[in-house]
């Protein structure tokens, strides 16, 4: 069974590419030109969002290097530890809202200090998969799409993040 699943995963991407090309041929569409146009549009989007990316990464780097994140975690950790959320995980939640790559750096530090199989390590792993980079996603994609009225996006994103935090506490406690 495992061998069949391994072979299936090796076939999926080439099959998808073949399907797209066959669909284009059947519907008399120039797939290559569409691909080139999409790549060009994607490159323009990257250029447009570059200042936002640089600003976010620089801000997170400054917070991390200054020691503010550890201070912040220790301060809020006193309030969150009775609820099952350890102090070392608090800065991860905060940083994950802005940058997934910076959060990954914090995850590696947590794994190095507490281990991957510890309660904190398990919670960190679950937290990284249950939450999203809300502010990064909103700033980058809304700017690229020129969205000015976000309505309930931030409230919904933060509610989903809170649900992910609660799920990580519960699941890490069960495991």
TrEMBL record:
Ranges for domain Nucleoside transporter/FeoB GTPase Gate come to 46-145
For this UniProt entry, what's an example GO CC term?
plasma membrane
Keyword set, alphabetical order: Membrane, Transmembrane, Transmembrane helix
Spell out where the chain crosses the membrane.
6-26, 46-69, 89-108, 120-142, 154-174
Q: What is this protein called?
A: Spore maturation protein
Query: To which species is this protein native?
Result: Eisenbergiella massiliensis
